[in-house]
Amino acid sequence: MADLSDLKEVHDDDLVDVVIGNVPEKGYVAIDGDTIMSSASGEAALRAAGAVRAAVDSVLSGEADNAFCAVRPPGHHAEPSRSMGFCLFNNIALAAERARRAHGLTRVAMVDFDVHHGNGTQAVFERDGDMLFASTHQSPLYPGTGAADERGVGNIFNAPLHPESGSEEFHDAMESKIFPAIRSFKPELILVSAGFDAHMDDPLANLRLKEADYAWVTQELCRIAEEKCAGRVVSTLEGGYDLRALASSASAHIGALMTA
Predict the structure, then answer these.
(1) Within the chain, what is the greatest distance between any pair of CA atoms?
(2) Domain that holds residue 77
(3) How confident is the model at residue 238 (pLDDT cuts 50, 70, 90)?
(4) Total domains, the chain
(5) What pLDDT, in 10s, does the model give residues 135-170?
(6) Most buried in the list 55, 103, 153, 212, measured by CB within 10 Å?
């Protein structure tokens, strides 16, 4: 489990204290129209944050070649001062800060292929040139951010996809914009926000990806990691709301990580 002080490396003190302080003893508490906490949500969130930090430690120490964190709640919508969009705390941002603060890394790339834009991750790092954030996502769609002209300090690379886009458009966005940006950045670690809700069967959006697309993008990211950062990749689960599509897509992703 992460400590509250760990969460405060990314989030405002008040947000951390309010969220954890409002975990109900029973029943449910609403943070916003989408985000609900139960009595187990506080522990789940602390374990999710702790998992990604432990995965960074394992990969950077050489104990593991790469890692996938099968966690919930997801994290990429959580901003420094706001929990939202099913997300309490920003797991991928906490992983990046762990790499920087505990291991001395100076260049970390975060890649997000969830169907929704990772507004929280972008908000954490958009003024931090030592961190790169790259995202493919459906647009228009919640949360309404992620336009191609949102560039931060030259470290933000958004490739929005129109509704009903499928494999061809996804591959093109990755190959024309996301992969070249990562290679040019020369990261010491690649972190992946692995949301599987761009799958064609997912009920919350309108992209048309398949399991093979997730295997492909994972293989390509691992290939870049081999070129630039000794193969070091840490991935964490974000969205995915059709359970069969989530399971098969995550399996394809993990299979590609295991054979990298």
Answers:
(1) 50
(2) 4-258
(3) very high
(4) 1
(5) 999 999 999 999 999 999 999 999 999 999 999 999
(6) 55
Q: Which of 11, 76, 77, 253 is catalytic?
A: 77
Q: Is 126 left (phi over 0), alpha (psi -120 to 50) or beta?
A: alpha
Give the residue among 66, 68, 113 at the shortest CA–CA distance from 260.
66
- Whether the CB-CB separation of 49 and 96 falls below 8 Å is answered with no
Give the model confidence (pLDDT) of 194-214 as tens digits: 999 999 999 999 999 999 999
How many CB atoms sit inside 10 A of residue 133's CB? 30
* 77 catalytically annotated: yes
Degrees to nearest 5, angle at CA 87 with 181 and 107:
30
Whole-number Å distance between alpha carbons of 160 and 61: 35
Query: What is the rounded distance in angstroms from the CA atom of residue 227 to the CA atom of residue 187?
Result: 10
Structure confidence at residue 9 (pLDDT): 98
CATH, residue 240: 3.40.800.20
Q: What is the pTM (predicted TM-score) of this model?
A: 0.98
Instruction: Give the sheet arrangement for strand 66-69, strand by strand.
Output: 66-69, 233-237, 189-194, 108-112, 131-138, 156-161
